[in-house]
């Protein structure tokens, strides 16, 4: 299996990828609609800087999704949140569903 099957991608989120800081603050890409499977469960996760933090939900997205830490995300019900970490889950050719696990505040 090379990707998460489309029939599992039941939700749609809006992702504004974090591109860095500019002279006037943080810079984000234009919003992109991403199909995903959204798991709204609170759990402890490790942020990109190594700090333990609480995640309110996790989006399982296609592997090609661009959502680095700091990106802004709008969930289906309209709640806005921020990416804590984005973890590549690539089986390297094994029969696993390759995806990007996006941990959200």
Which secondary structure elements does this structure contain, and how are they paired or packed?
Layout: E1 11-16, E2 18-22, E3 25-28, E4 32-39, E5 43-46, E6 52-55, E7 57-61, E8 72-74, E9 80-89, E10 99-104
Antiparallel strand pairs: 1-4, 1-8, 2-3, 4-7, 5-6, 7-10, 8-9, 9-10
Organism: Streptomyces coffeae
Protein name: Head-to-tail stopper
Give a short summary of the structure:
This protein has 105 residues and is mostly beta strands. The protein is built from no helices and ten strands. Helix content is 0%, strand content 52%.
Average pLDDT confidence is 92
- Structurally, the number of domains stands at 1
CATH superfamily: Bacteriophage SPP1 head-tail adaptor protein
Number of strands: 10
CATH class: Mainly Beta
Strand order of the largest sheet: 1-4-7-10-9-8
> What does the largest sheet look like?
6 strands, antiparallel, barrel
Specify Rg, calculated over alpha carbons.
14 Å
* SSE succession: EEEEEEEEEE
Protein name: Head-to-tail stopper
Note down, in words, how this protein is organized.
The protein is an all-beta fold. The chain has strands at residues 11-16, 18-22, 25-28, 32-39, 43-46, 52-55, 57-61, 72-74, 80-89, 99-104. The strands form 3 sheets. The chain has a 6-stranded antiparallel beta barrel. A hairpin with a 2-residue loop joins strand 2 and strand 3 (25-28). The N and C termini lie far apart (30 Å). 23% of the residues are buried. This is Head-to-tail stopper. It comes from Streptomyces coffeae.
């Amino acid at each position: 299996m090379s990707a998460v099957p489309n029939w599992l991608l039941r939700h749609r989120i809006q992702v504004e990828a974090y591109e860095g800081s500019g002279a006037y603050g943080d810079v984000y890409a234009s919003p992109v609609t991403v199909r995903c499977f959204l798991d709204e469960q609170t759990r402890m996760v490790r942020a990109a800087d190594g700090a333990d933090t609480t995640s309110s939900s996790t989006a399982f997205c296609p592997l090609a999704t661009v959502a680095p830490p700091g990106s802004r995300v709008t969930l289906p019900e309209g709640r806005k949140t921020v990416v804590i970490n984005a973890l590549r889950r690539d089986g390297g050719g094994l029969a696993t569903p390759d995806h990007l696990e996006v941990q959200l505040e």
